[in-house]
């Protein structure tokens, strides 16, 4: 985990904040097990002697990947909820460099916590935004975060933290694509790499307030933010 600017004090604040978000995500996901949409596990693509890769999308609603009563995409029980697709249950190989590509179709919602406007834990400490390497963005430009972290109960060998701010498309961007019968702007393409560690189960969560309900500092962290299959999930690292 990288420290924030400002010397030892900044580094200490970053560590404290990082521990706090790990603990919060674990309690949230553990309390919500089997709640809502339970996605099929999405395994990373691998080939002999090669690194792993996985592709995701994030949408302002659930029409592209949450099934209707007939099983076809239709938004499910909460079609207006923001979501990752096609799954928030990922399986990755241990001790492997994983390349992640995310097609980000949603618009920005300003972060409550600027800890998450920096790229943390990736190879080189950067990500590619539409082909341009960057290490952070303004808090007001973030639509979601892709944040992986250890459970508080993990042994030191399984400590793990990766967080990438996913830049939102402009609110004025015209629609350019039709997916599952619904119209979306051209997405921001975000790519980054990180190395997995020991086998285990890790938390995946979004820390941008893009949900519903709750008050004060937690405003926007209800609904899809607290439900598996939308903005919460798990990563299983297998040996």
State the oligomer. Answer: single chain
Number of domains: 1
Rg on CA atoms, Å: 17 Å
Q: Which stretches of 5+ consecutive residues score pLDDT under 50?
A: 1-35
Structure notes:
- The chain crosses the membrane at residues 6-29.
- Keywords: Membrane, Transmembrane, Transmembrane helix.
- The chain has one helix at 7-31, and strands at 42-43, 52-59, 83-85, 89-93, 97-104, 127-129, 132-134, 142-149, 161-167, 175-179, 182-185, 188-195, 200-205, 232-238.
- It has one domain (7-238).
- Strands 1-4-14-13-8-9 form a six-stranded mixed beta sheet, with helices on one face. A six-stranded mixed beta sheet has the order 3-2-5-12-6-7, with no helix packed on it. A two-stranded antiparallel sheet has the order 10-11.
- The two termini are 23 Å apart.
- It is mostly beta strands.
- It is globular and about 45 Å long.
- 10% of the residues lie in helices and 32% in strands.
What is the element layout, followed by pairings?
Elements: H1 7-31, E1 42-43, E2 52-59, E3 83-85, E4 89-93, E5 97-104, E6 127-129, E7 132-134, E8 142-149, E9 161-167, E10 175-179, E11 182-185, E12 188-195, E13 200-205, E14 232-238
In short:
It contains one helix and 14 strands. It is mainly beta and 239 residues long. The radius of gyration is 17 Å and the shape is globular.
